[in-house]
Every structure is written in structure tokens, then in C-alpha cells.
Amino acid sequence: MSASAETAILKTSHLLGIEGLSIEEIVGLLDLADTYVALNRAAEKKSALLKGRTLINLFFEASTRTQSSFELAGKRLGADVLNMSVRTSSVTKGETLLDTAATLNAMRPDILVVRHYDSGAAELLARKLDCSVVNAGDGSHEHPTQALLDALTIRRRRGSFEGLIVAICGDVLHSRVARSNIHLLAKLGARVRLIAPKTLLPSDAERFGVEIFTDMRKGLAGVDIVMMLRLQLERMTGAFVPSTREYFRFYGLDREKLALAKPGALVMHPGPMNRGVEIDSTVADDIEVSLIQEQVEMGVAMRMAVLDALARGLARGGRNT
Amino acid sequence: MSGKRIAFRNARLIDPASDLDVRGGLLVENGRIADIGPRLFNDTDPSDPEVVDCKGQVLAPGLIDMRVFTGEPGSEHRETLESASRAAAAGGVTTIVVMPNTDPIIDEPSLVDFIHRRATATARVHVVPMAALTQRLAGETMTEIGLLMEAGAVAFTDADRTVANTRVLRRALSYASAFGALVVGHAEDPDLSAGASMTEGEFAMRLGIPAAPTAAETIIVERDIRLVELTGARYHFGQISCRASLEAVADAKQRGLPITCGVSAHHLALNELDVGSYLTFMKVKPPLRSEADRAAMVEGVSNGTIDVIVSSHDPQAADTKRQPFAAAAFGAVGLETLLPVALAIHHDGRASLKHVLKALTETPARILGLPGGRLAKGAPADLALFDPDAPFVVDPAELHSRARNTPFEGRKFQGRVRMTFVGGECVFDRAKDKQP
Prior knowledge:
The complex is a heterodimer. By secondary structure, chain A is of the alpha/beta class. Chain A is 38% helix and 14% strand. In chain A, the strands form 2 sheets. In chain A, strands 7-6-5-8-9 form a 5-stranded parallel β-sheet. A 4-stranded parallel β-sheet of chain A has the order 2-1-3-4, sandwiched between helices.
């Protein structure tokens, strides 16, 4: 498989968010990911597509699953992968980030995967660096590969998005996963509902073109896919919701509430889960309804597809010209 | 609930909810109003064993008092739910809404349940608890509004405290709105009113008492109106006490915001001059205002800007009132003087009897979502029978409350409760009343 001979899937050399992607780009990525699912299930998982390329994982926020998923994706495609975990320094954020960018540029990577606690950080790096940048989560803005892997998981189960009702439940206000999924699902023709206490909804959430519910029981009626969001620990104890037990009572997904969704409804969670806070173990661990493990598998394939698509844009001998 | 039948005949039936003010009769069966009408029991004596001849006096829905402080749990020497309920019954009040600033503070579902259980076991009128809006009333983190509602909290309030942190209040209002919960606010800027015992003005100046301007109230009223606009929460000002606040509320209502407000009986009947020579029974929260502000409160009730009249019943032990004015406790008892004070608005020709009663029955029931407050078939038989014209002089020794800190000692009023019924049971009969 020669990268440069393939047709371009992405129009830009970065993947910074879902909002700027066309339907064709998204479908192209999903189709490509399907081929990597097959590769990952084979005994010989290695490809030489990115041989000689350097991938840097730059994580300003702790992450196990996303970082290892990108690392595995890079390695299976034959790239040299470097993981950099940067301790956060709140004093001179902007300056530090630009300093880091200059340092990284000098190392001449081909692809930079970045997670940062500030919205817009990935875009800033993309402007300053000569390599391709993949946003692995920036503040409360976007987490495009999560939305893509969620879409891949749904498409492989349901075939199409037309007419599907997807409920995104929980801390929408702070969630980059929610924002990326809202954009992506809407582009693919699904109907999106947001279910959350009002304190965890952006005040203009309906401007996303979604339906808003503060009563989970009403919001789940007729839903095909229930996407749970993680509630950060520091947001559980009074500032946004009064307590974890109250949150679980009204917004935690348990058997009783799931029964209000469409029969056969499927459950997703980007992980890591807070059992007994946003999701009950009997739901999370039920392989009949829970897609949570499948999401992890799709994550590696989806990220291989993203790296592949970006590599097609890389000129022979590196981007730097 | 009583299984028996009671026939009320020869009554002046007043029901603000159905705009009724007519001679007639009323039948109670199984604790509920079974029938009502102008011709009921008119011609022949009803065959029922129990007949109450109302002698042309007013039979109205029992009063609902939205602001009552008791000492249970924690300060039972001041007032228990039982003693407050006796005072309520003697005042024609059939539902008391109790504040959460007890010890412990009612900020936990199990404590709401405790109030319900204690009330069921000891109280003779309905006791409806409000829960704290913020944990420990500290104004920092919201309480478990959903779970507290399920436990039976009828509204959320930090009682006599203002949530100073605007962001905390915004989030609490926002969260509450999704549950359709009612938030009841106390409007008194804590910094501006710190240490104050009176309203800023000439009189406080001459007495040398630390005082706060009425703006301490209006600033919070205006702030909270903005937050209601932002969040859409159902919001009730527990009590307002000055013209500027009244105008702010009137404007908010004009704009269609879900805002209501109350006024205490003492702010309708007393002004700052009643403090006289440092009478600590006149020390209330917020403090008594100028005569112009008092008159504005009467006007607010007359024109309907003020939705409800409350007693702000706040029993205080003698030792905390026998103090220099600035050191004395805030608060006045008021359950037994609520009706006569309110009736004075009618006697002064400022409003119809029906209009005054509306602010004590139908409107609080509607704001709180309670089943009472009306004379209708099927409604709970919570009734007050009173002579609206009977004159009397307030004698603290005759009060049923455990505390006697009334600001109305020796004051003449018109309007006395004769009998009070809760769920069809007679809980007060002046003819048989023995002082505790």
C-alpha cells in the first residue's frame, strides 16, 4: 500500500475537529477504518505504511486509553512513536506551549498527536508546526477521534445513521466528546438529544440543532443509542450537581432508565467510567447492550485510519519543504 | 382523617379560588369537602349528628402560612412543631410551612422525613417543610434538590440568610429549574446589613442603633430577578419590606418572570417608630421600615403585586429578648395575629375580604402546589371559621405559642377565629379553649 498513490481522504493536513470536516471526509475515514479493524483482528497486525515516519504523542493531560490507542496505532503502521507527557505549568501556559512547539519542530516529527487542557491548543500548534497535528482532545472544544470511533462503532452495528436517535447524557458543558459527537452525528443524519442537569448544559445548547432534556426519563424515550459522558470528580460535589448519589438517582444510567429507551437500545461510554455515578455496572457490563469494549477496539482502528489519511498528505521525505 | 360528617350551616362562605362570597352551607365527609352551596342546609336542619351553626360568620379555607420558624429540632425550649401547631390552629392557620434553619439544619432527605414524622405524630395542623437551598446554609454548595423534593420538601430556601455568592445562586437556581423546584429567597445583602438592627434613617440615628439602608434589600431583589431571568427558576421572595423592592418585583412580573413575593404581617402593621424606647420585641428581620414603606406594603397587597401575607412567626425565648436592642435576638411570634393584621387592610377599606384572604389561602397553595387553600368539592376540609369584625386586645398571656414575643401586646384588632378544622377534625374551638 503506497500512501501517496492513494486518493486523498482529508482535505487538510491536520485533524483538529469534526466541525470543519465534510461528510465525504468522515465517510472516507470510516471506510478506511473498517479495513484496519480486519487487520487488527489478524495474527499479523503490522503494516509498513508509516515506516521511517515519526509520531509524537504530546499529552498535557493524563490519559491512558487515548494515548495508548494512538501509540498502538502508530506502531502497527510502522512509525517510530515517542510519548511525551508534559507536567502542567499553569503560570505561563501560552508561552510554554509555543516554546514546546519550537522545540518539537526542531525534532522534525511527521505527525504530532496532542492533548491539552485549553481549548484551541491543538489549533495553535498546527499553526506553528510544520508537521500534521491530530487533536486528541483540547479543553472543552473537540475530541475528533473519539467521535469518529463512536461513529464507526455505531455504523458497524446499525449500518446507517439515518433516523437514528442518539442521546448524549451527562456533563455536556465541559465535554469535548459531546461537542465532537454532536457535530458528527448531525452531519451523518442522526437526531441528537442532550440529556443533563441544567447546570451541565451550555446555556445556548439548542443552537447546536439538538433537542434538550433535563429529565432523563423523558429524554430516553425512543432512543436508539445512549451515549454516557464521564462526570469529572471535582464537578460532582456541589458546584454543578449536589452529590454523586443525587446524580446517579436522576442522571445515572441503570436498568430502569434504560428500559425507557427503544427496545434493543445500545449503550456507549468514552471511558473511564464512574460506576455508580453516571452508569450502573449491570448496564456497563452487559454485553447485550454495552458497546464500551467495542469502542476501545474501534479506537485503535480509527486512529490507524486517521494516521493513514494524514500520511497520504505527507510528501515523500517529510513535510518540511 | 375523620370518617364522620359535619354540616356547616348559615355561613358566609368565602373562597377566593372560585371567587365566592355568599351565604350558604358546607358539608364535610371523610375529611374532605363533600358539598358546598348557597342553598345547602338552608331551609331544614340537616340530619347529620354534627352541625356547626356559623351564625353568619365567615367560613373560609384554612390559612396557609408560608414562613414559620420553630425550634424543632434543636431549640425546643423556644417552640416545638406541636406548640407552633397549637398557635397556628388558634390563628385559623391549617398549614404551616416551616423553615430549615433548625439544629440540625434541614439539608438532608432524612431530616425532611424527620419533620414529616414528628409533625404527623405531634402537630395538629399540616406541617410542610422547606429544605435548605445550600448545604449547612453556608451559601457554598447546593443541596440535593431532587432527593429532597422526593422526601417531601416543598421549596428550597436558606431561611433568613441570603446566598451571597452570585455564581452559587445562579447554579442552584439553574439546577432547581430543571426539577420545577420553588426557590424562596431572603433579600438582605449580608455585608451591607452586617451588624444592623434597624433601618437607616433619622430615628435609628437618634437612638444610636446600628442601621442598614433599605437598599440592602433591594440590591438583592434586583440581583435575584436578573438570575431568575437567566435561569428560568421559579422564585419567591419570602418577604419584601420596602417600596423600591415592591417596584422591582412589579416590574419583573410585568416582564412575565416566574416571580412571586410575600410580606410579613408586622411589616404591614408596624413601622420603625414602633421600636419606641428600644422595644426588642420590635426587632425583626428585615427591620421595621419607614411609614412610607409600610404604606407601600399595604398598597402592594391591595394591588396584588404582593402575592402572600406571612406571619414570619419566629419564637424567641425571653432571655434573648431581654437584652440591649443591638444585642437582642431578631424575631416576633405571629401565627395568632396573622389573620387580624391582614383583616385590618380590609377594615381600612383597602381591599375586599376575599382579596385579603386570597393572599392567605389560594395563592400560597398555588405557589407551593398544595391541595388546600380552597373551598371546593373534594378539597381537604381545612377550614377557618371566624368573625371578621369581633374586636379584641392582644394579650400575650393568651397566646398558644411557647414563646410570647409578640410586637402587638395591647394592640386592638378586629377579627377573631372561632373554630379551626384540619382534615375535618376540629383542632381549635375558642368556646372550649383552655390556655396551656
